[in-house]
């Protein structure tokens, strides 16, 4: 039975003005924290004994713990409540974690609950002054869209890493269905030992692709993350060549997410 982590599932919502200030503080804290990690924490970690793998593991653990504290800060200041179901099944060797992408903080929450995870991140974040320190220290993979990126991601899975990827490539446009690119499925059939879908819902919607950070909802939002049943990529690769297998896996994942998101929407209404 999956464990469920819940924080603050009460009907109370702090006043709008307070939540706006708390949201601004959250973004400021995130930016300052990223800079401090780059200029202070990671250089100190680099002085500790250990090989490159040990340094990478330490860096990813620091990022995960920092993100967990950030989520807790947003909860305690009244910005959000959250619910995570099945987190204990994340973080296995060779596991590819595939999630939809409704909000800006999806990757933050996912990494917060996986201590040693790799992640495919937008190429532009590699030069972001607040994010480039954690991204480079943790040795995440740049989403360049090239074959080299696909090979690097598949290689990470083959080496026993847990890999997080968002097949949409960017946040879902509000009111529309998620559209999955085949790159994630192509990586999965080449390197994953298991594929685990994670369905994310945010109610009311906020921090979407079309909304600035200060456009907060009328009440604090609830972030829900549900870990789905594992998918064995061999059921696709054993029946067809890799290009066809990746297309079939992508279709299977898309149908799964459409069904689960529709169910979440019915539950919310």
Automatic annotation (TrEMBL):
Phospholipid/glycerol acyltransferase domain location: 95-203
List, alphabetically, the Pfam families matched: Acyltransferase
InterPro entries attached here?
Answer: Plipid/glycerol_acylTrfase
Keyword Transferase found? yes
Listed SMART domains: PlsC (SM00563)
Q: Which CDD domains match?
A: LPLAT_AGPAT-like
Select a single GO molecular function from the record's annotations and give it. 1-acylglycerol-3-phosphate O-acyltransferase activity
Enumerate the UniProt keywords alphabetically: Acyltransferase, Membrane, Transferase, Transmembrane, Transmembrane helix
Q: Which residues cross the membrane?
A: 20-48
Q: What is this protein called?
A: 1-acyl-sn-glycerol-3-phosphate acyltransferases
Organism of this sequence: Pseudomonas sihuiensis
Organism phylogeny: Bacteria, Pseudomonadati, Pseudomonadota, Gammaproteobacteria, Pseudomonadales
């Amino acid at each position: 039975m999956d464990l469920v982590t819940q924080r603050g599932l009460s009907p109370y919502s702090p006043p709008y003005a307070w939540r706006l200030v708390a949201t601004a503080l959250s973004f400021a804290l995130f930016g300052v924290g990223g800079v401090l990690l780059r200029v202070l924490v990671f250089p100190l970690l680099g002085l500790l004994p250990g090989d490159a793998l040990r340094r990478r593991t330490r860096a990813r653990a620091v990022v995960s713990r920092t993100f967990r504290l950030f989520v807790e800060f947003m909860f305690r200041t009244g910005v959000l409540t959250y619910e995570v179901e099945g987190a204990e099944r994340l973080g296995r060797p060779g596991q590819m974690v595939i999630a939809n992408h409704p909000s800006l903080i999806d990757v933050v929450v996912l990494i917060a609950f996986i201590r040693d995870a790799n992640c495919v991140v937008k190429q532009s974040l590699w030069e972001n002054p607040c994010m480039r320190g954690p991204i480079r220290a943790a040795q995440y993979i740049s989403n360049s869209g090239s074959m080299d990126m696909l090979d690097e991601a598949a290689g990470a899975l083959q080496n026993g890493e847990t890999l997080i990827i968002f097949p949409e490539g960017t946040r879902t446009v509000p009111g529309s269905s998620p559209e999955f690119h085949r790159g994630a499925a192509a990586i999965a059939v080449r390197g994953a030992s298991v594929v685990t879908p994670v369905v994310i819902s945010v109610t009311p919607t906020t921090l979407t692709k079309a909304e600035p950070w200060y456009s907060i909802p009328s009440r604090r939002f609830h972030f829900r993350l549900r870990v789905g049943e594992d998918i064995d990529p061999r059921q696709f690769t054993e029946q067809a060549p890799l290009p066809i297998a990746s297309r079939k896996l992508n279709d299977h994942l898309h149908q799964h997410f459409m069904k689960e998101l529709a169910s979440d929407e019915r539950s919310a209404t």
